[in-house]
Write a structure and sequence with these properties.
Radius of gyration: 16 Å
CATH topology: Aminopeptidase
Strand content: 15-25%
Largest sheet: 8 strands, mixed
Oligomer: single chain
Structural class: alpha/beta
CATH architecture: 3-Layer(aba) Sandwich
CATH class: Alpha Beta
Helix content: 25-40%
Order of helices and strands: HHEEEHEHEEHEHEH
Number of strands: 8
Strand order of the largest sheet: 1-2-4-3-5-8-6-7
Length: about 250
């Protein structure tokens, strides 16, 4: 019998996004709880511990040794609640996992909630460094979700691989979804850790207006989140991961 794909609703995603813990010390526990709500079992969930960082990892085996990484950071800046940056990305990540969990995929999908992105991409760099050189060719792509929930989905060109950016734009057009791509002049995100290892990677965000009046400020609160923006970010990320799974592993190199 074919497996039915259960697409999350805008209301479901917004409800999860509004339940955000503003204490950095508690956010890892909240990530684990959220993935458990999405169907992950204790056996599925691993806390990857490095010297000074802990990533939450959920692995969905595929039928091949090829790998897609889907990630978002769970830590927040020193001020604000971190609802946009980046609980929004964590919620979208968890719902992409929930949708894809029952399906058979060609590529193994590794869903990662990264620690200490705000301290200099510490969690993602720690993970990227563990990939042994002979295995790099099996890592087909990395999709990073950072700061959704304010506007239309966008790709940060300057920290994203060109071929992945082009395919994402084409995908948004096919979906008749509003979309933008451009340079974000300040800051970095976890896609860079994997691009540094020559793994194609992309960062999707949905900031709007003057984002620096929100992120890394006391204004980064749940009240600013837009349900439609969150939903579009989730749908684009979901479709992109499915698209990558269908492609040859080297398609975006």
């Amino acid at each position: 019998m074919p497996v039915t794909v259960a697409i999350s609703s805008e209301e479901e995603i917004k409800t999860n996004a509004l339940v955000v813990n503003c204490d950095n010390r508690e956010r890892q526990k909240e990530v684990v709880k959220l993935f458990e709500k999405m169907g992950a079992t204790a056996e599925d969930l691993v806390i990857d511990k490095f010297k000074d960082v802990e990533n939450v990892v959920v692995r969905k085996p595929g039928t091949t040794e090829e790998v897609i990484i889907v990630g978002a950071h769970y830590d927040k800046a020193a001020v604000g609640c971190g609802a946009v940056d980046n609980w929004s990305g964590i919620v979208a990540l968890a719902h992409v996992y929930k949708t894809l969990r029952p399906l058979t995929a060609r590529k193994t999908m590794i869903f990662v909630a990264f620690d200490k992105e705000e301290a200099g991409l510490v969690g993602s760099r720690a993970m990227a460094k563990t990939i042994e050189k002979p295995q790099l060719g099996n890592y087909c792509a990395m999709v990073n979700l950072d700061s959704l929930g304010m506007g239309i989905p966008q790709v940060v060109e300057n920290i994203s691989s060109e071929k992945l950016t082009k395919r994402t734009a084409e995908l948004a057009k096919r979906m008749e979804m509003p979309f933008h791509q451009g340079v974000f002049p300040a800051g970095d995100s976890d896609s860079s850790s994997f691009r540094d290892r020559k793994i194609p990677a992309i960062t999707i965000h949905a900031l709007a207006g003057d984002p620096f009046k929100v992120i890394h400020t006391g204004n980064d609160q749940p009240s600013i989140l837009n349900g439609s923006s969150l939903y579009l970010g989730y749908r684009l990320a979901l479709s992109l991961v499915v698209e990558i799974d269908r492609c040859e592993c080297n398609a975006f190199r």
